[in-house]
Design brief:
single chain; about 270 residues; mainly alpha; two-stranded antiparallel ribbon; 9 helices; binds FE2/S2 (inorganic) cluster
Length: about 270
């Protein structure tokens, strides 16, 4: 049998034989995620203008404590330490944030974009060792499945918010009546995109059927697995669309609450 000798040559950071624009994707990921982190952090610390009538910003939902009518347990509790900044968003954002941070797709994307590990496939990285995810802090990535359990609960909360977004108080009678406005569509779209992202999660796919040895003998699990697999094929697209839309939904509710834009009501 003929022998083939393959020579491996160590190259400097960023060197590659690739002729395509390999750097476009990591740069785009870097800019996209940085923009989201800056906006989300700013919005989470505002602590105001996050609700408008029947709309609640997804960054603040569920509102455990807070000043809006959507708050579950009322205003900020008296025992809240003075030195700790208070915002309803800070109480809950760690859960969906943890889901995204530990997501298999995002890990691959931000390892490349933020610390060049490697910058792209077949492009040299600025280190000689493979660090792996076997020690702190990256060993925490193994928590992904637990964040997924929480994220599933959040999807149902956001579906409920979208439902509430269809019920408007009649100024004349004071009663709630069914209606549709641009904000209703924004919140419904948000729940849909986050559902598509969450139910296409690799861990969710495993949970609903992937763990079985003979999936063909479990028709319900096979159907769920196939649905999740269908979403999973475009997991990256769901990830970006839902990321953009959740920030846009917060901005929309915020601008309405500040009186900068008017929520167009169809009926
Ligand atoms: S793998 Fe992306 S959300 Fe689970």
């Amino acid at each position: 049998m003929a022998e083939t000798n393959i020579l491996f040559e160590r190259r400097g950071f960023g060197q590659t034989s690739r002729k395509d624009l390999w750097w476009v994707q990591p740069v785009s990921v870097f800019l996209g995620l940085s923009a989201f982190i800056v906006y989300a952090t700013w919005a989470a610390f505002q602590g105001e203008y996050y609700a408008f009538g029947n709309y609640l910003s997804p960054f603040y939902s569920p509102e455990i404590f807070g000043s809006s009518p959507h708050s579950i347990f009322g205003p900020k509790p008296d025992w809240w330490p003075m030195i700790v900044p208070f915002s309803p968003a800070l109480l809950i954002l760690w859960a969906p944030g943890g889901m995204r941070f530990t997501c298999y797709y995002y890990r691959g994307a931000y390892y490349k974009a933020f610390w060049a590990d490697p910058p792209a496939c077949s492009v040299s990285e600025p280190r000689k060792k493979y660090w792996g995810e076997n020690r702190l802090p990256l060993i925490m990535q193994n928590l992904h499945r637990y964040f997924m359990y929480l994220a599933v609960i959040f999807v149902f909360i956001l579906i409920y918010d979208a439902w509430k977004g269809l019920w408007f108080v009649n100024a004349a009678t004071g009663e709630e009546q069914f209606g549709l406005a641009v904000g209703s569509i924004v919140l419904a779209m948000n729940a849909t995109l986050l559902g598509g992202y969450t139910f296409g999660c690799h861990s969710f796919r495993h949970l609903v059927g992937g763990f079985k040895n003979q999936l063909s003998k479990a028709p319900v699990q096979r159907t769920l697995y196939n649905c999740s697999s269908c979403l999973n094929r475009r997991h990256k697209n769901w990830a970006w669309a839902s990321l953009f839309w959740v920030a846009f939904s917060d901005l929309y509710v915020r601008l309405c609450a500040m009186g900068i834009i008017t929520d167009l009501r169809f009926f």
